[in-house]
Amino acid sequence: MTPEEAKRNVLVREIEWWRQSRLLPESYCDFLLNLYLNEPGKRSRFGSAVRRIGNAAPLKWVYVFAIFSLICFVFLYFSFFSSTLQIAIAAAATAGLLALAVWRRQRAPGGARFALGAAMFVPLVAGFAVLDSGGWLNPAGMAVLFGICAVIWIACGVAFRMALLQTGGLLLAMGAYALLLAGRLDEPAWFEVQLCWMPLSVLFIWLSWFLHDRVPGSGAALFAAALVAWYVPEIYSVLANADRPLVETRFLAKTALLGLGLFRLRRHWTEWVA
Length: 274
Hints:
Elements: H1 3-20, H2 26-36, H3 40-54, H4 58-77, H5 83-103, H6 109-134, H7 139-159, H8 163-184, H9 190-211, H10 218-239, H11 244-264, H12 266-273
């Protein structure tokens, strides 16, 4: 150990003693440690977080473990609750997580994104449990669930300016639309499936152009949804065990048409998506 390293170790121990004896505020001690540690950002932040946990008041420990126990209790016995109580719990959890995401959006963006992601999946997962317990796990019930979740995802995506959430919401809405079509069309012909989805793809592209400068993130989200809707008929044909060579031919023809259109209009749609 060099004399400089020995001196630095002495100073670090002295700063730690100042922290433990509360002679200096913890933020000042972190700043001083950043001056002497070899990896200040990594070691100081981790050590500060661990020390905050260790110095937490007993009431905070009780509060954290009470919330954790409550979450575990609800998770384990959720299926035994009535449908009304299940819906109320899911709505309360979603609203609480959204409020937490809004509150921590500026102070802790990472934690806010985690809370927002959890808030998006709570109604989807809880919705399946509600449908199962109520005997509504059928295409109509799932279509309603997907529609409700799509509204939540799109609204939060617009509010938080996140194109990913808007895309997920549009895909959920397309899932609800597909379930409704499956309940009304019995073994549809290939051109009927094309007529159900091709106009929707064109509509999404037009909306991508119309809303890209009005709603942040909507251009990319709608454009991605349009690309998915463009190929849904071929996906349906594969799932329905249709004639594979014919499906491949239609897929290649639509891919060529899509590529030509994207190339000819590349100066326009790149502005919508960017």
